[in-house]
Each structure stands twice: as C-alpha cells, then as structure tokens.
Specification:
heterodimer, A: Immunoglobulin-like, 5-stranded mixed beta sheet, 17 strands, B: mainly beta, 4 helices, elongated
C-alpha cells in the first residue's frame, strides 16, 4: 500500500515538471481514402498517396500519442519532412540551412500541443509540396513530429522521446496502359494482357465491358465509351480484379448476357498500389463461342450429348452425388486387401 | 547409357559420408555373399528387405479419339514411385515381393471451338490421373547374383486404382474412380559393377545393397471392365527410373 502511494506521488511530481519525461511520441495513420487499419502509406504492402489525392490536397488523418503534458515548456508540435531513411530531423543540423546547400529537412507546419493525444489532418499537397503532385518520381518521405518550445525550431537537438515519425510515400505516376489480347470462351472468357510496367507492384486491374461496342464481325466500333488510350470511362462500371502481377481476368459471358456468337468490347486499365489508374488499353472484342473440351468430346463420342447425364453415368463420380456403390466398394475392398496382406506378412516374419 | 549410369553412381557416392566407417552387419538371407562385384570376396552384404523405385515416363489411356484429339502429342509425363517389400526369396531366382505404387499424370490441350471465330484463345481442357496399384512382384536377380551379368528382370501384376479429374477452362466437369488390373515387365541394369567399392560403401553406410537403372513397360485395364467407369487403362505405357534395393 505504501509502495503504491509512493509510486503515485512520484508520478504526479514527474507530470507536474515542465518538459519532464513522457511516453515517446508515436504517429498512427488513420483510415481514409479506402484504406483500412492498419494504414500503411508506403511500400508494396501499403497504399501511397496518389496523384489525385495529392492534387486534391486530401488530408492524411493521423493520431499522435505520447505528447508532453500541457503547461510545460514544450508547447508546439513542429512537423518536418525529410528524405526517407537518410535524414533524421531530430538533429538540428538537418533542419538548418547550410552555406551553399538547402536543408535536409523541410518545415511543413506547426501546431499547438493541446493534449497528450491529438488528432491531426496533414494536407497531402502541403506535406509533399505542390511539385511532388506532378512529379514523375515516386518517393517515400519521413515526416517528423517534434515537440519543441517555439515554432519552426531549427536549433534545438530534439530527444527521441520528444520526436515521432511516420513514413508516407507519394506515387504521382500512373502505370502504362496494358496491351490486351483477343479471347473467346464458353462458360468463361479469360481476358489476358501484358503489363508494360512489370517492375511495379500493382493493386489490380479494372476490366470495362461494352456489350454494344463491337460489330457483327467482331470489330470494335468507334464512338463508344471505350476509347483506346483514353482515360478510364466513367459511364461504364468496371469489374475489379486484384493482384500484384495481374495479367488476366476471367469473365462470365452468360452473366454478361452474351449468347453464342455475340461479341462485346473490352478494355482494361491497371492500377498501381496508390490506385493511380492507367489509360485504357487497346479495345478488343471478346466472343462467346461454343467450346468443346475433352469431356464434352468424350461424351459426344459415346452418344451422350448431355454432359451432366454422361458424368452421372460414371461410378463414384463425386459430382453426380455419390455414384454407384459397387465401384466405390472396389476401392475400399482393395485398400482392405492390401492392409490384410501386409499384416499377414508381418506375422509370417 | 554408360555415361548416365556412371553419373548416377557418382551421385550415389556423393551422398555418402566422406569417410565411410567400417561396420559389421549380421548376414541375413539376402544377397549371395561373395559376389564377384565385391572387391573383398569375403564381404557379406546386408539383408535385402525392400526395393524402392522413382520413375518417370509416359502413360496415355486408351480413351479413344476424343482423348487423342484433345491431348494430341501430350505424353504426360507420368511420374511416380513404388515400394516393394520382399516377402520371400526363391532360391536361384530372386525375391517375391508385395509392392505399392503411386503415380500422377496430367494431359492438357487447347479446347476446340465448335462455332465462332477460329483461332481465338478459348482456354484449355485437361485430364489428370492419380493412380495407385498393389502389386505382386517377382524379381529375377539370379543373373546378377550368380552369373555376374548385371541385369535384373522383373514381372509385376496387381489391382490398379485411379482417381481422375477433367475440366475445361476453370470448370471442373467430372471426377471419379476407375479400377482394373495392371501388369508390368522391367529390365534393370544394376550399377554395382561400375564402382564396386562405392556399391559396398553404400551398403555399409546406408544399407543400400544395389542401385539400378530400369526401363519398364506396363499395361492396365483400369476402368475397362465396367461401363460405369472411365476406361483409363492403357495397352502399353513405359517408365524409366532409378531403383534402390535395401
């Protein structure tokens, strides 16, 4: 009891001292723009800020914990941007303008510390700079949140306790358009394409289908919503297929409403991890055709045009609902025979 | 052929510990002691209890024109393994064994387009087979053991059981089981004569009496006795591989 009281008293004293030790500052990005927790804003497993988000100056919601208590000397939260992994903005020299060179870290903004836990919306364009929104380079940055006494402090060495950082990448570059190949099918049509930016990890692809986009000979008609090399059409709802290296998607022609011999125009865009969407690929016509696989051919050869009835004819067919007991019994019997033979051999030894 | 055999023997040597330790083993009823292949005529090999085979080859079921058209030229391949447990040794002939084998093969081809644009990619069709067999195996190793001719002849027969699946595109169209009878005839070339010392060390260190390259022809009546089973049997198929007797 005495020990507990002593601990509480010491904690109260520590909390009342301006600038006294507190938990380390931690930055946690919050859900936004379709991103869900845990929000990662860089790398192949995260979703960087896209060009559209940057231009729209979308706010990046952050929760900042471990801030010093109010009433102390550290009243300002300075936000600095530094190159990812190589510029520690805690160090004063990295925040200072040196002779003949620009500082490694750039001051973004300063906010007042009002609580030990604060929420903050960091505007994307402000954070990265307007030039970054239209840059041709995808770059990660480290954003430093420094608890200091005065705004835009570039002379104080900030301890690790009074600093927190978060990595955010901006990817303003849309991937190149895929090159689509013609295809046909019966129950499924597999649309395949090549990805010109094979080195970049993707989020996935949008497949746009225009049922009236082809003529009777299977040639794309002009004037439709799908324009090769154009921006993604807004009048057609795409199907989304995910995959870091996706180069094909399967469509259900029956679900699309295609009868045998019908064509539909298809165009594809690919999306990088920031959801930058490429321009539309070339437009091709897919066709629903009557396809004969091995099983269809085998059944037809035996005069069974109905493949379901054909399948049901074969014993032990799982699809047919259990099949004949005699053939299944064969299988079980053989296994039992093998087991008995092995046991007898063991006994013989 | 000799080059390949030498290479495999070398591979077997590489698997041995650097310094093979001398080891005395009880003499059982296995190999005939004192084979001319042994450097030391008094060397007594360990017991022979089983034979294990790894194989690859081609198996094409006799399914008729539909199979030939759908999977034209696709030889599989058929890959698998077999373990034979030696039950009894018939003097001057060889061991009579009970074996179990498992194999897998898959055939694929482009699905045929019956109507519509010719030449468009309409996906693939396929058939896969996993087969199991319980076999009575007679290995005639008298040539090798008594006459120093490094060939072993084998005959095998037993029930054959196959699980098959077939589909086109992404659609599974059918699956089931077929049973029948399998037979096989095998010619094996024992590799002991290439490196007798290595063969002896293999026995001392691992208990492997003989390693051999083999070629086998086989047939199966799988599914051919019933109209309700897919006739996956084959009149003639072949495999080749590496066998170890231990």
């Amino acid at each position: 009891m005495r020990h507990t009281l002593l601990t509480l008293a010491l904690a109260a004293i520590a909390g009342s001292i301006p600038g006294a030790a507190h938990a380390q500052i931690r930055i946690t990005p919050q859900s936004f723009g379709g991103r869900t927790s845990p929000v990662v804003l860089y790398g192949n497993s995260g979703q960087p800020i896209s060009a559209a988000e940057c231009v729209a100056n979308v706010g990046i919601p952050l929760e900042i914990t471990g801030l010093p208590a109010t009433g102390g000397v550290l009243t300002v939260l300075d936000i600095w941007r530094g190159p990812s992994g190589s510029g520690n903005c805690n160090q004063a020299t990295n925040r200072q303008t040196m002779t003949g060179s620009t500082p490694i870290c750039t001051h973004i903004q300063s906010v007042a510390i009002t609580s030990t836990i604060q929420s903050l919306s960091l505007p994307a364009e402000t954070a990265f700079g307007a030039a970054a929104c239209t840059s041709s380079v995808s770059t990660p940055y480290d954003f430093y949140f420094l608890a200091v006494a005065t705004a835009q402090d570039n002379s104080t060495e900030v301890s690790t306790t009074n600093a927190g950082s978060v990595t955010v990448a901006i990817d303003p570059v849309a991937p190149g358009a895929p090159v689509l190949m013609e295809s046909a099918g019966d129950t499924v049509i597999t649309v395949g394409w090549s990805n010109p930016d094979a080195t970049e990890a993707l989020y996935g692809a949008h497949v746009y289908v225009d049922l009236s986009g082809c003529d009777a000979t299977g040639t794309p008609v002009t004037g439709g919503p799908l324009m090769a090399g154009g921006t993604a059409p807004t009048s057609v709802t795409p199907s989304t297929f995910q995959g870091q290296t996706i180069e094909s998607a399967t469509l259900d022609p029956a679900a699309l409403g295609l009868a045998y011999g019908d064509f539909a125009a298809v165009g594809v865009t690919i999306l990088d991890r920031a959801r930058n969407e490429s321009v539309l690929s070339n437009v091709v016509c897919i066709e629903r055709v009557q396809v004969q696989g091995f099983w269809d051919a085998y059944c037809a050869e035996r005069g069974m045009a109905d493949v379901e009835a054909c399948r049901a004819n074969y014993s032990c067919s799982i699809e047919a609902g259990g099949g004949s007991a005699s053939a299944c019994g064969w299988a079980v019997g053989l296994a039992a025979l093998a087991a008995v033979a092995r046991r007898r051999m063991r006994r013989a030894r | 052929m000799k080059t390949l055999a030498t290479g495999l023997a070398g591979l077997a040597l590489m698997l041995l510990p650097g310094a093979a330790h001398a080891q005395t083993r009880a003499v059982g009823g296995g190999s005939v002691a004192g084979s001319n292949y042994a450097i030391d005529p008094t060397f007594e090999p360990s017991d022979e209890n089983a034979t294990f085979e790894l194989r690859a080859g081609s198996y094409r079921p006799s399914l008729g024109a539909a199979f030939d058209a759908s999977f034209s030229g696709d030889l599989g391949p058929w890959i698998g393994g077999e373990l034979d447990l030696h039950a009894v040794r018939i003097p001057y002939i060889g061991p009579l064994s009970l074996g179990a084998s498992v194999g897998w093969s898959e055939w694929t081809g482009n699905a045929a387009i019956l109507s519509g644009s010719a030449g468009a990619n309409a996906g693939q069709t396929g058939l896969s087979l996993v087969d199991f067999a319980v076999l009575a195996v007679l290995r005639v190793d008298a040539l090798s053991r008594h006459l120093d001719i490094p060939f072993v002849l084998s005959g095998k027969v037993g029930p054959d059981l196959g699980y098959w699946r077939t589909g086109t595109g992404t659609q599974l169209q059918g699956e089931g089981w077929s049973v029948g009878l399998r037979w096989a005839a095998q010619l094996a070339l024992e590799l002991d004569f290439l490196e007798p010392r290595a063969a002896r060390r293999l026995d001392e260190a691992w208990g492997i009496n003989h390693s051999a390259l083999f070629f086998e022809v086989l047939g199966s009546s799988m599914g051919q006795w019933s109209t309700r089973q897919l006739p996956l049997g084959s009149d003639l198929a072949w495999t080749a591989g590496l066998g170890f007797t231990f």
